[in-house]
Amino acid sequence: MLVLVGLGLWDEKDLNLKGIEEAKACDIVYLDGYTSKLFGAHKEQLEKAIGKQIQVADRTFIESGEILNYAVTNKVCLLVGGDPLIATTHTDLLLRAREKGINTKIIHNTSIYSAIADTGLQMYKFGKSATVAFWQENFKPTSFYDTIIENKDRGLHTLLFLDIDADQGKYMTANEAIQLLSEIDGAKGLLRGADVVVCCRMGSPSQLIKYGKMEALKNFDFGLPLHILIVPGRLHEMEEKFLAQFKA
Amino acid sequence: MLVLVGLGLWDEKDLNLKGIEEAKACDIVYLDGYTSKLFGAHKEQLEKAIGKQIQVADRTFIESGEILNYAVTNKVCLLVGGDPLIATTHTDLLLRAREKGINTKIIHNTSIYSAIADTGLQMYKFGKSATVAFWQENFKPTSFYDTIIENKDRGLHTLLFLDIDADQGKYMTANEAIQLLSEIDGAKGLLRGADVVVCCRMGSPSQLIKYGKMEALKNFDFGLPLHILIVPGRLHEMEEKFLAQFKA
User: Fold this and answer.
1) Mutate to test the interface with B, among A108, A121, A160, A202 (most CBs of B within 10 A)
2) Looking at this predicted complex, what is its ipTM?
3) Fewer CB within 10 Å: N-end or C-end of chain A?
């Protein structure tokens, strides 16, 4: 059996009672050390909360499906930051487990999609979301820009995940993302003077939300990761009033 | 102080450790009995999990802001089904609390936005979401239909919340929503032969997901509420494979 348990946003206290109960009842407990990282808790704190030893699983162990070999005869738990099914990796793993006839269970938890409600932006007004990827010598993806413009045309907000290179311990900052955005917008100028919302370390005691013009926030010191960027669409009166709290 | 604590999807075991800790530390604990209802737990079970007496708050008590009078001098907790900021009511309450100089705290929890990932549909491919409202003699809203078509044109999925009339204890079924959808589509025929995904009682032991043509699911018995409807956009190969598990 394979049990995917969501860890929520920040630390071991974000675990829910179901997640603790399920993890406790498993023979082996793995922590996904690749797609998700819990910034507010070490493995030891999670072990204490669950009352069980935890092994850190790397990318290959999960993506190759090696973890499933253990789940055929054991009750295997995989702890995943946020909600366990927000990343494609785990949806894929779940599907492969079922194809092998392995029973599966999912214990949901808070995802970033809930946390961004702290901005006061209404969830139903978000359009498609996108990821801002690190540019490389030969690969400079710009599709996230098109998503923003398409959403903006319809008055919708865009949630932008910022790239993570976990192997290198690199997390894109909001500053880098705003810089890329300005660069792509360039001569087109569709986002000239546009407002953005920067969400930092959501769900943590040092959570920070800033709202202002791209230009004004470009050099702001947002502190440690994770950062997330939102490009708002048309604002309702209440959304505007709420965002005013976060004006830089 | 006002502390909004999310209850998650189904029962008292969906509470997270932070939520329990915060509720325990409050002077008065209210349960939102209007915008959200926890189907899997009675007040008594929540009281046991929290170790505190709970009072049920009705619509007027929350929307009039009467609850804030207590939060000026007391530490007041409001328990809300799902995530506490997904409904506009609570965002508004939070804003009014801050305007009165009342300290606020938000403990997030799993929302339906995480739970629908069980369908295998990728979160980033959802467009704007909408609500299917009960039709009345003089008010027959159809804007949710336009949202579906706009999303579909861009290849995006549409999440449709189904109307709740909590005062009357009425919950729109997926069957009623599909019926309305067919009626509005009528001669236009943009959704003729379209597939839908029906999600029932998400996060509960009796959770049910069904995937199929609108026509085929129109008379299917989905059982007790809550139901939610998704009109998928363009499907990736993995999304298709995942949905195949739920074919009606």
Assistant:
1) A108
2) 0.94
3) C
